[in-house]
Amino acid sequence: MNRRTVSLLWLPVSAIILYLASITVLQGADNQPPPEEVESLRGAAPVGEVPAAPDLKKYPKEQVPMDLQFVGQPPLIPHSIRGYQITANSNKCLTCHAWENAASTGAPRIGISHFRDRDGKVLADVSPSRYFCTQCHVPQANAKPLVPNTYQPVESLKKP
Amino acid sequence: MKLPIPEFLKRYWHFLTRPLALALWIILAFGFFAGIIFWGGFNTMMEMSNTEAFCTSCHEMRDTVFQEMKTTIHFSNRSGVRASCPDCHVPHEWTHKIVRKVQASKELWGKITGKIDTPRKFEEHRLQMAMREWDRMKKNDSRECRNCHNFDSMDFSLQSKRAAHMHSTALASGELTCIDCHKGIAHKLPDMSGVPGW
C-alpha cells in the first residue's frame, strides 16, 4: 500500500466516525425530558391580558367542625373571623378561647401545647409562638387544595 | 264681664305707647330677628358639624380612625346601610347631643393645641380616648348602637350559635351591654392589657 491510498482511505473513515458521533449526540438530546411548562399563579394568559379573577371564597358565619385527618392537626376554624383583630395590642380570639374566658363564652380552650415555648418549657400564658392564631388555624372555606394530595388518615381517624 | 287688668300692665302699656319708646320697639324687633338668626345658625352649625365630612375634615381623624373604619362592616356590607361617625358617637336627643358637643369641643381644643397632631401621638392617646367612649357607652347602655340595632327585633334563631348564646343570656338579662362584648367594632384597638376580658 503506498502512502497515497492510505490517505485516500482516511476520508470515508473520518466521515463514518463523524456520522456515528453526531448520532450519539443527537440521540442523547432526544432522550432529555421535554422542557416543563412553567405557569405562574396568574395562569396561562399572556402578559398584557387581564384574565378573569377567580370567585372569592365564601366564609360562612358558622359551620359544622370538619373532621381531623391526623393526630395533632390544628383544627380548622368553624366560625367566621371577619374583623377579628390579632395585633400586638390585642387578640380577639383569646377573649373567647383563653382559659379564663372559655367557660363564660362556651368556646373550646386552647390546647395545652399553646403554653409551651419552642424549647418545650411550659409558660404561664399563651406562648408567643402561638400568639398569631391564624398562622396555623384558618377558617373553613369552599377552597380546593392548591396541590394534589393523596394523604389518607390512619384507620382510627377514618369515619365508619 | 270685664277682666280686671293688673295695674303694672297698664303702666307698662302706657310706657310703651309713649313716643320715646320707639327705640325700645326697635330693640325688641332686633332681638327677635337676631334670635331667629342665632337659633337657625346654631342648629345649622350643629347639623353641619354632625356629618362624617366634618369629622374627617381634619387629618387626625382622616388618617387614623377613618381609614380603619373603611374595612369594617359598618362602612360597607351586603345591605348597604352605612353607619357614619355621628351615628355611633353623637346622641340623637337634643340634650344629650348638646352635652356631647360641648365635650367634643375639647377634642377641637386638642387639635388647636396640637395634642394629637401626629399618628404617633394619636396612638399614645388612643387608650385614653377609647376608655372615654367605652365609659360613655357603658353608662348609656350603648344607646347609639341600639338606635340601629333593636334588641327586641333580634331573631336569635337567625343569628349564629355563638351570637345567640351570648345575646340570649348576658345581654337579655341586662348584665352586659353591647360595648362590653363588641369593643373594636369600628377601629383598631389600643393596648388592651388590663382591660377586663382581654
From TrEMBL, chain B:
The chain crosses the membrane at residues 20-42. Keywords: Cell membrane, Electron transport, Heme, Iron, Membrane, Metal-binding, Transmembrane, Transmembrane helix, Transport. One of its GO terms (biological process) is anaerobic respiration. Heme 4 binds at residues 178, 181-182. It comes from the Bacteria. The keyword Cell membrane applies. This is Cytochrome c-type protein. It comes from Endozoicomonas numazuensis.
